[in-house]
């Protein structure tokens, strides 16, 4: 018998809202995290991107809250403006009729307007750590009644850029405040760093939901001078409604945008230097299908939750395996199917091989041919010198020379028409 949200002691009004949204059965991370949070335990919770981590903490937090008590009872810290707004909107949907119960706090906007919203006595504040700490130190936000602090995207929130303000926020709350860290990847370094402000924290590594359609991880080898053309051909071939293309350096984007637009592939750039309003407008238009291709860097796209994204392209290889996982997690959310491509030069094969080993993912090489994705043809081995008996010897590969990744049957093809098709 499967577990339900009611079995996890989620409040009846919340269960009713979930039922209206066709959410009956908790995902693995929700089934594991909710009882721990309800019991008041500190926890570090790892689960693949798109498996329902936001609801894993919002549901038990909102169940425990006293909406009649006009004090901030929980804080959620997140690294980007977009993720803060996204989490706040999900919380508001779970509290219909409770006006002003949730307040998002982000940097780069009028602080006076945020102070006015805080005067309406919210019970939940979702914030970027820098602006939150500023308001606490100015005594515009009181945290003496905060029972729980959640750190979302914890792997990034405890790095050099965010680590100090996050820890300062923790110091401002009471010693017995519950501390929860969520991320798609929780390394041993994060576990060690969290010991400074958690108590007997439980480490949970949850799996993706069973029966998930799955994500195909593939890579294409391209001459660096032809990468934009390779990207254009790939996007035409997969022909999906929405794709996100990741680049490492924003300077490369102008060429990509101009060439894709020239070939009538509408695309937009999402970057951190754009205004808050411009970034929000770009994301809304992408969600609404106004244009099919979003080009971004890791900083801009962190935590973006757009369930319908069907394809991710690493135009530049991710800087490390964790970043590869976070980028790739923008597709295949909540068990949907998805495609992930990396476009690499011949000299970058070792990067893909390293990611495959570290993530235990099968990342297969493909080539584009006649409107389909095919396995690369094996290279013909040159004949060796004849032996004494007149038979040629096969030459051994040179030491350290990369070998093309195996990807199953050589007859598999992914056609442009007929959906994903990739296994």
UniProtKB/TrEMBL annotation:
Residues 34-204 form the Helicase ATP-binding domain. The keyword Nucleotide-binding applies. Signal peptide: none annotated. Residues 3-31 form the DEAD-box RNA helicase Q domain. GO terms for molecular function: ATP binding; hydrolase activity; RNA helicase activity; RNA strand annealing activity. GO terms for cellular component: cytosol; ribosome. The keyword ATP-binding applies. It comes from the Bacteria. GO terms for biological process: response to cold. Residues 369-423 are annotated as: Disordered. CDD domains: DEADc (cd00268), SF2_C_DEAD (cd18787). Pfam families: DEAD, Helicase_C. A motif (Q motif) lies at residues 3-31. Residues 372-382 have a biased composition (Basic and acidic residues). Coiled coil: none annotated. Residues 412-423 have a biased composition (Basic residues). Keywords: ATP-binding, Helicase, Hydrolase, Nucleotide-binding. Residues 230-374 form the Helicase C-terminal domain. Belongs to the DEAD box helicase family. This is DEAD/DEAH box helicase. It comes from Brevibacillus agri.
């Amino acid at each position: 018998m499967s577990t339900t949200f009611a079995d996890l002691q989620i409040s009846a009004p919340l269960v009713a809202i979930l039922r209206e949204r066709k959410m009956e059965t908790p995902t693995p991370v929700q089934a594991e995290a909710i009882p721990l949070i309800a019991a008041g335990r500190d926890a570090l919770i790892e689960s693949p991107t798109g498996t329902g981590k936001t609801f894993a903490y919002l549901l038990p937090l909102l169940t425990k809250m006293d909406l009649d008590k006009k004090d901030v009872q929980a804080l959620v810290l997140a690294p980007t403006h977009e993720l803060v707004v996204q989490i706040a909107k999900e919380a508001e949907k779970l509290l219909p009729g409770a006006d002003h119960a949730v307040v998002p706090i982000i940097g780069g906007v009028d602080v006076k307007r945020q102070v006015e919203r805080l005067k309406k006595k919210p019970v939940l504040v979702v914030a970027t750590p820098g602006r939150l700490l500023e308001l606490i130190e100015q005594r515009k936000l009181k945290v003496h009644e905060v029972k729980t602090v959640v750190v979302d995207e914890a792997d990034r929130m405890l790095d050099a850029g965010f680590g100090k303000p996050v820890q300062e926020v923790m110091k401002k709350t009471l010693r017995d405040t519950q501390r929860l860290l969520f991320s798609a990847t929780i390394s041993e370094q994060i576990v060690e760093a969290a010991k400074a402000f958690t108590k007997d924290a439980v480490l949970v590594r949850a799996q993706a939901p069973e029966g998930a359609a799955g994500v195909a991880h593939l890579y294409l080898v391209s001459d660096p001078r032809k990468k934009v053309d390779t990207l254009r051909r790939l996007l035409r071939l997969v022909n999906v409604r929405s794709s996100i293309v990741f680049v490492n350096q924003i300077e490369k984007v102008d060429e990509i945008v101009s060439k894709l637009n020239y070939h009538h592939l509408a695309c937009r750039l999402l970057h951190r230097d754009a205004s808050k309003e411009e970034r929000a407008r770009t994301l809304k238009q992408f969600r609404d299908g106004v244009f099919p291709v979003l080009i971004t860097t890791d900083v801009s796209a962190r935590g973006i939750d757009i369930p319908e994204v069907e394809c991710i392209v690493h135009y530049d290889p991710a800087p490390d395996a964790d970043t590869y996982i976070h980028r790739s997690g923008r597709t295949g959310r909540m068990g949907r199917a998805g495609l992930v491509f990396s476009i690499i030069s011949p000299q970058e094969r070792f990067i893909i091989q390293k990611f495959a080993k570290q993530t235990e993912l099968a990342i297969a090489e493909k080539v584009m041919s006649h409107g389909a994705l095919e396995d690369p043809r094996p290279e013909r081995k040159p004949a060796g010198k004849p032996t004494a008996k007149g038979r040629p010897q096969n030459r051994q590969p040179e030491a350290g020379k990369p070998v093309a990744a195996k990807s199953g049957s050589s007859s598999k093809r992914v056609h442009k028409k007929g959906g994903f098709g990739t296994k």
